[in-house]
Amino acid sequence: MTTMTKVSVDFPSGQAKPTTDAILAELNRTVRMPPTPVPERELALLYQAACGDTGGSQAARDFLFWLAGQPDPTGFVGDGGLELRRMDHRLKNAALEVVAWWAGPTKSDTPLYDLLASLRTRFAKNAPNHTRGESRGTSLNSQPDG
């Protein structure tokens, strides 16, 4: 025998429960919203930083590849969202703008993937083989042991 549990949702006093029509109207409005514009300046700032050889550069590069679920071509394995803590104020704000764009419907993913291809080309040739956290404080131009 199956028993049914009744679940109710409490709404703040004075606020009416949404109707099915109101919920569908809100979903329709959301679906029809235009895609968020590409944050070009923020992507450019993160790209510029990612090309450097500082801790903030490493964090910016790791963040950009993390967005697309791809490994950093230098071999660095970062710590996910914790890498935001390594960024300065400007880079952190740029990263948050990029996340807001990436999370919504995008007209095209090409701006991010083009940027990643450029970074991959730039770093793939001389990539040291780092594991999680090993490359912190290590120059990106250093050669692997051997």
Short description:
The protein has helices at 20-31, 40-50, 55-67, 89-103, 110-124. It has 146 residues and is mainly alpha-helical.
Please provide a written account of the structure:
This protein is mainly α and 146 residues long. It has a domain at 40-124. Helix content is 45%, strand content 0%. Helix 3 packs parallel to helix 4. It is elongated. It starts with 19 loop residues before the first helix and ends in a 22-residue tail after the last helix.
- As a whole number of angstroms, the C-alpha radius of gyration is 22 Å
Low confidence ranges:
129-146
Distance between the termini: 69 Å
| Distinct helical segment count | 5
What structural class do you assign from the helix and strand content? mainly alpha
Secondary structure elements and their pairing?
Elements: H1 20-31, H2 40-50, H3 55-67, H4 89-103, H5 110-124
Helix pairs in contact: 2-3, 2-4, 2-5, 3-4
Observed structural traits:
146 residues, mainly alpha, 45% helix, elongated
